[in-house]
Amino acid sequence: MSNWILYGLRRGILTTRYPQRSGAMPAGYRGAVTALNAPLEEQRAGIAACLSGALQEGSPAARVDALRCYQCGECVRRAPTAFAISPAFEVARLRRRAASFGRSVHVRHVDAGSDGSEEQELQAIFNPFYDANRLGIFLTATPRHADVLIVTGVVTHPMVDPLRRAYDAMPHPKSVIALGTSACSGGIFADSPDVAGPVDTIVPVDVYIPGMPPTPLSILHGLAVALGRAVPAGGAIP
Amino acid sequence: MRGAREVAQRVLSRVRDGARLAWIFGDRVGDRTVLRYVVSDEGGLEEHPGNVLGPVPSLAAELPAALWHECEARDRFGILFEDLPESRPLVDVRPAEELRRAESPEVSTVLYGPIRSGIVESARWIVETAGEDFISVHPSMFFKRRELEHRFTGVPLDLAAHVAEHASGATASSHAAAFSKAAEAALRLEVPERARATRAVLVEFERIHQHLDSLAKLADDGSLSVGSSQTFAAKERIHRLLAEATGNRFARGVITVGGTRFDAMSRLADVCGAQLDRLEAEVLAVLEALFSTQSLLDRLIGTGRLAREVVIAYGAVGPVARGSGVSCDARLRDGYLYTPMAGEESLESQGDAVSRALVRRAEIVRSFRSIRNALDGAFAGEHLAPARIEDGCGIARVESPQGELLYFVRFDGGIARVALRSASYANWPLFVPSLPGNIFTDFSFIEHSFGLSQAEVDR
Predict the structure, then answer these.
(1) Exposure check for chain A: N or C terminus, fewer CB within 10 A?
(2) For chain B, what is the domain count?
(3) Range of B101's domain?
(4) Residues β-bridged to residue B408
């Protein structure tokens, strides 16, 4: 018979203090791509290697659509003078202003066509290393109790109606988070006729958390942005 | 090429002689429609292509393993199968109003899904129930179909493994490795030993984190919150190690056709050298605690039992097959990623949820040993062999955490067709025969004891 209380106590406190204190990903983590000042011909090899069309030629530097980037690192490997990648994880962007909720929010998740890893990273924010409950964030099984809807995946045709119905079933005020590059922009399926499109073509999105999948710290940051407790990356989306 | 009718008969007799029907899928070569049958036996994989000239006899009546494959070939390629015992399309996403079918007043039809409670992938079951008992359960799935196989067309060879990783992000290394192996088989490309060892390490780490995921969810089903949290914490440690060693928590963007995209082995060796002992001790400690919690084991014993004959008839793979005593481990055969893998195949005989959990525990232990073997090999040399497209096709498999994962690649100028058969696709149909005798609240235990990924089923 195992004693789980002792087991937990022996491991001590694992939980991060983020977002009250700063967090960090390891040095080599492929978080966010930035464009460096470089002539067009040096940009091209990197741009051509991007399957999701996240990169466009520009002067003095290429333009990076962070919501399309799936962090493969090909552009940096092929055009190291034009692109760089950093372990940044605070990548969530805000479209409108943050909704005003109290100290505690209930979150409902809907998978609209994910690759399965977004769910595992969302699950991870409740593990002892991140413990989202300490921030007043709780999961709920019904849209009727939900303040925040988190949607993963590019929306497939059959998921359009179920997603709309889940959104409509939520009370006001409500906030929607697109979690993962596929949800934010479609990612490599952005131009595919086989899917309906990114989440914001079906329901209004307030916060975008890109990443393939976003790391749990990115998800905590995105939730904090949605609740008005953290500063979004890159300013508001027009 | 032979006619598909003749090939179907030949495949049927191969299976009657003891081979396993692994896959049937359609392909369009020029203006011809081709049906490709894949069987597996001791000697490895055999592909039997057949020209479709008219209706093809269905194998599903005798081999339940053929059912989903034949339905999909019918729906996608318009191939007619004689006496196919299922007229509904495989992608069954009709609205609820069209699906209520229970006629007796005691029986009600419950549509479970596609959105369910908790953090789960979207899938739906049509459940007919009279109170607590299951009367019938019919999977009505593929809400998440993204037509991933189409997305490969025209993609440059050196980028295509990124697309494969999108099939199932949680098992990205298995998908990238299986796709790459199929392409390498088509191009007759020799992969450097250093790259093969790297792939083996990544796939074994993937097996550990996915098995922990399945066990953590089972603990949660059994209301063992601390056990579940601590198992998820052990899983988190694997992701942190992978992030440090490869730049991504699921080791995405490492494996490619011809080897690996960068020399991940040296960094893996450094990080593992510093952390692997402690990590392994943590994982083994949580397993020890889980498997000595009798209240959890009691809930798993006898739940979702699958007889050995059923597992064989449905062509199941992975821990689902091994839990019922059926040997099926691609790591033992066809020059796996890097041989030798450590230890014996883990088999259990009871076929219930606890047997599948025990298989996972034994595999985690074995995966750590395999990782050490691959790291200790200290293979020198290149991490990537240059690849150039030549026309032809190849098929290959990798033992993913869920079981045997198959990829087919055909080149015709560029990538002309990629098809994949995931372990989850092979195993989902067994969910139905695992249910009789169980009650409604066993559903999630059985589901998590299967440990499947919906994304790789729907793709």
Answers:
(1) C
(2) 3
(3) 96-139
(4) B395, B419
